[in-house]
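Researcher: We're teaching a course module on how sequence relates to structure. For the next exercise, students receive a sequence and then see the predicted structure as tokens, so they can try to spot secondary structure elements on their own. Here is the exercise chain.
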Amino acid sequence: MESERSVTRVLVVDDEESQRTALASMIALWGYAVETACDGQEALEKLATFGAHVIVTDLMMPRMDGNELLRRLKAQGGGPPVIVQTAFGNLETSIATIHDLGAFWFLEKPVQSQALRLLLERAANQGRLAEHAERLERQLSYQGLLGDMAGTSPRMQEVFALIQQVAPSRAAVLITGESGTGKELAARAIHALSPRRAGPFVAINCAAMPDTLMESELFGHEKGAFTGAVERRAGCFELAQNGTVLLDEIGDMPVNTQAKLLRVLEDGRVRRLGGKSELQLDVRVIAATNSPLDNAIREGKFREDLYYRLNVFPIPLPPLRDRKDDLPVLTQALLQDLNRKHSTKVTDVSGEVLDRFRAYNWPGNVRELRNVLERAVILAGEGTILPSYLPPGFGGAPIPAPALAPEGGELRVPVGYTIEQAERALIELTLEHTKHNKTRAAEILGISQKTLFNKLKEYGAQGATVG
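Model: And here is the predicted structure for the students to work with:
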């Protein structure tokens, strides 16, 4: 029993320092690991990192009292068992606290040490059982599923293990991998398995954001901070308070914004554009990139000090072509999701389809697989996906490319082309029309130069010939 107690963590919450210290010392003597907090607000902050099995809290406290702490824990899914102590207790209060707010038990001050010790034993057992159930749930990932990710190959099992190891910590994570490998899914899995899972998950795509709006999106702005700022707006970091922020495609962030981001990460504070005061942050940072940052560092496009700040715990995601053993379980997981989305009843894919999947190199990775399956699911409706439901030319000779009409003013796209294929053809033909003037092509297409550049990078990774 003593060995079990030694790993049991107790959080003591009381605004009276002397009582808080005395109670923590007594509980520590019984063999528990103890952390303290001066009120409910600090208790919630400590829970993000301490991971208490039991909470012993006072009821009457300034800022956030015990009742509000219990309400917050209940709203977040319950939290660890809570033993409430107060000098102002009565029967009605105890019934409300235990039954309405979900407290484990109620003790009046002065607390009898033997009664508290017995309650801690029982509450700790309940807390350990809950933690064990959660651990078993996490271990299900080793059967091939982790959140919305799927895979039984050794490469993906390594990824799942890394996610499980880093999730409970506060460490910054850098997820790398080609476009479509599931970097955001990995980030969401880390958040879902972390003590911050009840907090917000906020993602921002640095490649899709115009440079002029990047700082406002990240850090927020005050009313009148710049032309068009008609009201105060919270940035991604502020919105992710007590949760996780994902900085996707971090390599495309402007260098001047990188310097300000580094300051925020080092100080743990953020100031809105045009603001006079700083806000204290409690945010877990995950960054993702589809291109090696060491190349950008050598070219002066990415700060080396920011790279080391973000790359505390790297997680590389393998491309689908390197884990084709995952295709059966991955296909089934995607089919289940697509059936829910489209109200279809597709059960599986034929052996011939799976063979064609294995023979294909998947330049667009899991995202491309999902797109292929989504088209097939809609066409099939139910039963088994057959080769006839796959895109024309899939895995073999490409279907005829669309072409401009003789007069050059109309794009003719053959039936069977997907939206992505048609978009790519339109971009390629527009570039030919502008003699590869990307600025003019972006104007004609009605997209930003950065969007066009990202599209061309994606096509380049897929073996495109666009210039």
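Model: If you want an answer key for the exercise: The longest helix spans residues 113-139. The domain at 403-461 is CATH 1.10.10.60 (Arc Repressor Mutant, subunit A).
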